Please model this.
Amino acid sequence: MLYNVHFGIYVDVAMPVEDKSKSLLPFLSSPKLLPDESEAEFQSGLQSLLSELDNPSPLAVALVSQLNECLWWIKRHTVDKELLLHEAMARLLSKAGSYSETYDNRKVSEALERYLDGSADQDEAVWIEDILAKSKLTLSDLRVRAFKDAAKYIKMVDDLIHRQHQTMRHLQRSIDSIDYKSRLIKRMDLELEALESRQPVKGVLSLDDESS
Amino acid sequence: MTMNHRRSLANRCNALKSTGPRSAAGKRASSQNSRKHGLNSVPDFESSLEYQTLIDLIAGEGFSAFSCADIAAGLLNYRRVMDAYYDTYTSPEPVDEFLRDMNVKASNPIFSELLSPSGSEPQDVREMAAFFASIQRQERRKGGPVSRRSADTHKLIRYQRNGIARLSRAVRQA
Model:
């Protein structure tokens, strides 16, 4: 019987647990990615995390995929910190020098982005350098000022990254707990098996029974 | 001053005269305006198919029925928070570029022209300019798209914290 668990992925609930772990893999691991992100990269991260577990249960797979998503969010937020700086730099440049209505913030922002990437054409580069000269700033001065301006938002992004780290810690503890439990059950099964193999034939009294 | 600029300003001035929705349907629709992520509502996981499927899967690992229910609810709740987190991150409040970049001082002649049918006085024009300047300040304070999405996502931190704590507790107490 097939069930749509999440993200439109189907899991056969009648299959054995070992197979379910594989079926569940896409269940919580099918990511919601941004247009410029690679799903292959996401999946390879997940596979490498899963490879560290010995025969993971469906629940462990579900938790590991959440952990992988946390790592992905940390990556996104780290990029955001740089973007926040660029945004603040563009805002400062727009205000600089002879800022007028026609001095479009978006235009400055796009040109600056290309300038910082090194992909700006000569006209754009000259234009940005001209604005920098008019505002009597070097690129590093501008970056310092932008950092000051964007500090509030950079702190927010730092909080978001910190939250993801805390979440990962919770998930790690949960995975450890499942792993410990499964190992404990396995050990108890083995001990029981050993006891059963040592148990004498039914009806024959042992020395312990006689003494009692 | 371009025609678009004049038209936008005229629209905004007219919007200031609005006193909100009048019909019952309009009021009902606008009452949902402040609802953004829906994480404050009580979820009903138990009637969902996902919940039952998860319980069946987790039960196969030797957890008790009570623990299975707890873990499944915790996992679905955490997913709900993270889906809202993604939605908030990918659709921040849009930047009103017109308002952010407009030159309020240069728009004074338009304000007086727009107000003239009602016999505008310099005081009226000044008040309108001050009003636009104040909403422009608010718009600029919110920053660009990255600042906005960071601020919006930041508001969901407590939901994420509670969601993961619930899930982790359910798994470790099982």
